[in-house]
Amino acid sequence: MNRKEALDSIKANIENENLIKHMLATEAIMRALARRLGEDEEEWGLTGLLHDIDMELTEGDMNIHSKLGADLARDLGASEAMAHAILCHNDRHGISRETKLDKALFCADPLTGLITAAALVRPDKKLAGLEASSVIKKIKQKSFAAGVSREQISLCSEIGLEVGEFIELGLVAMQEIDAALGL
User: Fold this and answer.
1) What does pTM read for this prediction?
2) To 10 degrees, the CA torsion angle through 30, 36, 41, 43?
3) Under a CB-based contact definition with an 8 Å cutoff, are residues 119 and 125 in contact?
4) Distance between CA atoms of 93 and 64, rounded to whole angstroms?
5) Closest to 153 in 3D by CA, of 90, 111, 105
6) How many other C-beta atoms are found inside a 10 Å radius of the C-beta of residue 138?
7) CB distance 91 to 107 below 8 Å
């Protein structure tokens, strides 16, 4: 599987443009994490890209979301490690996160929402001028982007990063693809 095949499959299964942008943002963060941690950038990026491929097919039913996604990823040629990370990024299944890939996807997933929300409250609604320090302040405000799990983001410590450096890495990764994200 290559990125084009993965993206084509996503576009065949997902209509919501914001969900696609979330998956692109997760891919960008996962690629940056792979570079930082000396992991396989292609594998990590594709895992981030594909992680929510089944969201519309499962109609957002969290009891089955990611089970179908892992199967779809396997059908596209994803490794078992990638499929496992996709499967266990949904806590509902109670499947333990064992590898760095599993843990990275789990904490990267909500970070995209926090960074996007921080950009959208800016007057220009752009990532370009957003600074990591602003996002770090926002994470401390529980009412800001209340649906974003701070606990999940903080699990970046399990892959050797402090929250501040994780936010900065994620922000820079998303800034690099700001045109694709419309931010």
Assistant:
1) 0.97
2) -60
3) yes
4) 8
5) 111
6) 18
7) no
| CA nearest to 2, candidates 71, 72, 76, 52 | 76
End-to-end CA distance of the chain: 28
For the record, the structure tokens of 80 come out as: 């078992």
CA gap 95, 86 in Å, rounded: 11
Rounded mean pLDDT for each run of 10 residues along the chain, 183 residues in total: 96 97 98 98 98 95 95 97 97 95 98 98 96 96 96 97 98 98 97
Burial bucket for residue 168 (CB in 10 Å: 0-12, 13-18, 19+): middle
The 10 Å Cβ neighbour count of residue 140 is 8
Query: How far apart, in whole angstroms, are the C-alpha atoms of residue 161 and residue 155?
Result: 9
Residue with tokens 């490690």: 81
Domains of the chain: 3-181 (1.10.3210)
- So what's the pLDDT on residue 60? 83
Distance CA(159)–CA(17), nearest Å, equals 30
> How buried is 96 (Cβ within 10 angstroms: 0-12 exposed, 13-18 middle, 19+ buried)?
exposed
Residue among 151, 161, 53 nearest 104 (CA): 161
